[in-house]
């Protein structure tokens, strides 16, 4: 039986084999772990075939999540957990855009989400939220430009700000960011940080991230629509009371 040193040496001398093994087995197993119900797959020869089967299960789960009466944060938390596991992000967060005293800003809503973290631990208390100007950092740039970002090395980006890192003690190395846009207005930004086992997120990771952000977009749109409707009802009620 080969020992650890000989296996490592073989993999170093045969990088193509290592890549193919990772694509066919390891990535497939990571995707399988993203689902609550295990799938019995006999042949692991094709990552793409397994990916199709697992994605169907994930899409069904997220569609069911959209139909639940739970609040926006709980539904979004589930999406971030699943996406984080699939793209192997160390953690994800959701920042809300808001205007306070006429000043646009970003604030933490769901913070440091991982595949195993609890919703209650990730939901940010208003008393402990991190707030910063809309024009600050890559998250702010994403909100202003309304375009997704894939930053392989934040230290090389002029847009990057270590403001949040200084608040938390975390070290951001690479990042994916996606804006939640409603009627040409950015209402929030999802951020995925630090690819596990690699220096940066790949183009494939970015594609998967953006694909599943469509579910996050629907969730935030539903919440925003309900919020605006309630504001309209309250305004009409207030006007009716004044007119009496």
TrEMBL record:
Domain of life of the source: Eukaryota
InterPro entries: GAF, GAF-like_dom_sf
All residue ranges annotated as the GAF domain in the record: 71-230
SMART domains: GAF
Protein name: GAF domain-containing protein
SUPFAM superfamilies: GAF domain-like
């Amino acid at each position: 039986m080969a020992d650890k040193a000989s296996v490592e040496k073989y993999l170093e001398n045969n990088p193509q084999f290592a890549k193919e093994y990772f694509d066919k087995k390891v990535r497939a197993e990571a995707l399988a772990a993203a689902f609550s119900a295990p799938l019995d797959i006999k042949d692991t020869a094709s990552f793409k075939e397994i990916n199709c089967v697992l994605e169907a299960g994930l899409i069904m789960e997220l569609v069911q999540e959209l139909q639940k009466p739970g609040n926006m944060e709980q539904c979004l938390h589930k999406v971030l957990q699943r996406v984080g596991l699939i793209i192997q992000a160390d953690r994800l967060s959701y920042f809300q855009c808001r205007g306070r005293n006429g000043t646009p800003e970003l604030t933490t809503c769901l913070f440091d989400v991982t595949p195993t973290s609890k919703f209650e631990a990730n939901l940010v208390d208003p008393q402990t939220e991190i707030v910063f100007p809309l024009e600050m950092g890559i998250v702010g740039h994403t909100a202003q430009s309304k375009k997704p970002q894939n930053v392989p090395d934040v230290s090389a980006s002029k847009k990057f700000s270590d403001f949040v890192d200084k608040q938390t003690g975390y070290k951001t190395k690479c990042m994916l960011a996606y804006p939640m846009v409603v009627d040409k207005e950015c209402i929030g930004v999802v951020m995925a940080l630090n690819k596990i086992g690699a220096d940066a997120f790949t183009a494939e990771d970015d594609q998967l991230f953006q694909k599943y952000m469509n579910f996050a977009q629907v969730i935030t749109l539903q919440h925003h629509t309900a919020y605006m409707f309630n504001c309209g009802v309250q305004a009409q009620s207030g006007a009716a009371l004044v007119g009496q």
